[in-house]
Request: fold
Amino acid sequence: MTETEKPLVHLVDDDEAIRHSASFMLRLAGYRVQTHKDGVSFLEALSGVEKGCILLDVQMPKLNGLEVQKELNERGCEMPVVVLTGHGDVSVAVQAMKAGAVNFVEKPYEKQVLLQALDEAFDRLDSKAKSNLQKADAEKRLMKLSPRERDVLNGLVDGLTNKAIANDLDISPRTVEIHRSNLMEKLDVKSLSAALHIAFAAGLGD
Reply:
């Protein structure tokens, strides 16, 4: 594969150390990387950049990641977005996915988790139709869930923590964890983001 055939990642993060370490790791993994010091500079350069995948940090000055994502949507940008969130920042990740992000990765991220998220994003770029879950298929999968599992999924769609869902449903956080594990098994998914994709494809959270 020539250098120009390698998939391109636009890394948008205001932390210079993360830009340096992440771009080094991504290049070793076979990606080309263009770094952007914040969302404003990326949006200014957008019309002239090569198509690729956007790795977008949420916590940035001037414009945060969600605001950048909103602007990308308004401009009709079809590049897939993977969002970098702070540890445990589920509500922000859910907002990003509702706005169309392919995936989210929590900082500090594990190399394999990040690379897998980018693989999914590039699959989306290669074939939007193939990787977009059809509404009917998503609805069929959700029919496997018990009413309580569905309640827990609705809580996750709203960006709630396990503890907040437990409070809402008047059950223990441990029970929520069990329901969450069961619903992911029934939906045949390994990550929260994959479960959310199915929920959004079925129209939950609209």
About this structure: Residues 135-201 form a domain with the Arc Repressor Mutant, subunit A fold (CATH 1.10.10.10).
